[in-house]
Amino acid sequence: MKDIKLRNQMKSIYRVFLFALVAFSLGSCIEQDFAYEIYDGSVVEFDATVLNGPAPGEDFPIVNRLPAYGFALNTSRPFITESSGTITFRVNFVSAQRPNDETITYSVVADKTTAVEGVHYNTSGSFVIPANSSFGEVTVELLEGDNGTSPVTLVLELNGNGSDIAASENFKRLGISIAQQ
């Protein structure tokens, strides 16, 4: 008697499983009319700007800690200070990878920057996205010296390559707060 009950329960479970499998299979055949836009442009963006919210009153973040590539800032990362040496910020290339190196320019946003070039920092104004890559790095050399005690801010803005790679309007600026020691 127990064998018959067990066999009937197994048949019921099998039927439910089979019904669910058929329902799932039929549901995947429904045609969906979604319009997908395909973006065919090429832009560059600061990784840290994409991953962190803007500073109060600004449309870009001001970072005071070294960002980890691909992650939002957190308190486990070291502070950016004048003694941090050379620091790098990843730039994302949003496009199909290119077979050749691409030189991208950037500039200092003078009206948002309190740091002084040659006193607080040095930077080149350009960097390379290597061939067959989706990333480049902006390098900033922080300078030590008797620069006071208040933090200074450096704001960088991506410009693109001057032809077919533009700066992303929403993610082209990054502020860097440099603590003075």
Task: Summarize this structure briefly.
With 181 residues, the protein is of the alpha+beta class. The chain is built from two helices and ten strands, in the order αβαβββββββββ. The protein is elongated and about 90 Å long.
Describe this entry's structure for a reader.
By secondary structure, the protein is an alpha+beta fold. It has one domain: CalX-beta domain (Immunoglobulin-like), CATH 2.60.40. It has two helices and ten strands; from the N terminus they run αβαβββββββββ. The chain has helices at residues 2-27, 47-51; strands at residues 43-46, 62-63, 86-94, 102-108, 121-123, 126-129, 135-142, 152-160, 166-167, 173-178. The protein has a five-stranded mixed beta sheet with strand order 5-7-3-1-9. 23% of the residues are buried. This is DUF4843 domain-containing protein.
